[in-house]
Amino acid sequence: MDIKSLNKEELKELMKGMGQPAFRADQIYRWLHVELVRDYDSMTNISKELRNRLKNEYPLTVLKKARMQESAIDGTRKYLFELPDGNYVESVFMRYKHGNSVCISSQVGCRMGCRFCASTLDGLERNLEPSEMLDQIYAITVDTGERISNVVVMGTGEPMDNLDNLLKFIKLLTDENGLNISGRNITVSTCGIVPGILELAKHKLTLTLALSLHATTDEKRRKLMPIANKYSIQELMDACRYYYEETGRRITFEYSLVGGVNDTEEDAVQLSHLAGRLGSHVNLIPVNPIKERDYTRGNDESIRAFKDRLEKNGINVTVRRTLGGDIDASCGQLRRKAMEEKKSV
Ligand code: SAH
Questions:
Q1: Is 199 a catalytic residue?
Q2: What's this model's pTM, rounded to 2 decimal places?
Q3: What number does CATH give the domain 3-57?
Q4: Contact at 8 Å (CB) between 137 and 152?
């Protein structure tokens, strides 16, 4: 039993079982999810006896800051956290004009195998618990002393491959008795697991779903993303339409631009069609080369031309600003580096 993963009702049940009054759950919930305390002893309105009992029976899930790198360029911070079982995950803290944003991981490793991504090179280790997703945000809030207003689930892992825990995490994160982050300020990014998109749609959440499209034909997509062997682009677009109809929220397309692979004019035209039909915003991500693969990004001119073509076709498009280029801030790079260093000791 992981006390930080419980919602208020579940915590009340637990307290009842321990012979405690219901308000004890309110107190503990507040310590965990508003005060963000890192140990039971900080819960000063709880008796020492109960604190000791909780310590023994329900060890708190707290992530330990193993490393932190801060970009000298833009203040972006990359955190490497150690989980209670000794595994590592990484998270990124970014400052934007509209507020602070944290990018969290949803799994230790990933089994999706996207060719350009560093997070998946060693496969999936395990899913993250709701508390372990939450605590990335809590630990960063405490460490920076700054409020976080936006959360993107775009770090290591495929959130739809860990959907139950993701849903519990979102419930806790958006709880008005917790950090109370608005659903509209949460983005969940998926490589396109159709049943997951359909299931998520049924919950009618206000969050933004981002689809990692990365190619406009099935053939090209299969070369970049093994998941494309399972679901066609047509099936994906149908799922996105359903999601939009159920939730009223438009899907964002993410498109990692890989030089000479998916950045031709023809690609831009096709992408305009796909995005146009769903009224989708397109977020272009110039590929971040990883040393294990020989993909490269196109030059600035080709990126601009691709963007212009989409805009001429009436598509709302942004090029992802590269933050933290000096600190291994993209998917899985810091964790890999730390693990390699560990192995070589
Ligand atoms: N599994 C989810 C979320 C994780 S990755 C997903 O696939 O959407 C977040 C985004 O970064 C995805 O669009 C992913 O394809 C992209 N990405 C991963 N590695 C990248 C790299 N080296 N360069 C550019 N984009 C990358």
A1: no
A2: 0.95
A3: 1.10.150.530
A4: no
Q: How far is the CA of 121 from the centre of ligand 1 (A)?
A: 13
- CATH class of the domain defined by 64-344: alpha beta
For a ligand 1 pocket test, name from 254, 263, 291, 320 the mutation site with the most ligand atoms within 8 angstroms of its C-beta: 254
- Distance CA(27)–CA(175), nearest Å, equals 15
215 lines ligand 1 (CB under 6 A): no
Task: Report the separation in Å between the CA atom of 189 and the middle of ligand 1, taken as the mean of its atom positions.
Answer: 8
Q: Does the active-site annotation cover 117?
A: no
291 alpha carbon, distance to own chain's centre: 23
What pLDDT digit, counting tens, does each position of 221-230 carry? 999 999 999 9
Position 136 pLDDT exceeds 60: yes
Q: Where are the domains of the chain?
A: 3-57, 64-344
Question: Is there a contact between 200 and 240 (Cβ–Cβ < 8 Å)?
Answer: no
**DSSP secondary structure code for residue 207 in this structure:** P
